Amino acid sequence: MRMAARLEAMGMEKYAGLTRKSGGRAKWTGKIKLDEASLELPKKWKRGRLIFVNSMSDLFHKDVPAEFVGRVFRTMAEAPQHTFQVLTKRPERLVELSSRLPWPSHVWMGVSVENADYVERIDLLRRSGARVKFLSLEPLLGPLDDLDLTGIHWVIAGGESGPGCRPVEKAWVRSIRDQCKEAGVAFHFKQWGGINKKRAGRKLDGRTWDQLPAQPSMAAAAE
Question: Which residues are paired to 132 by β-bridges?
Answer without folding.
Answer: 108
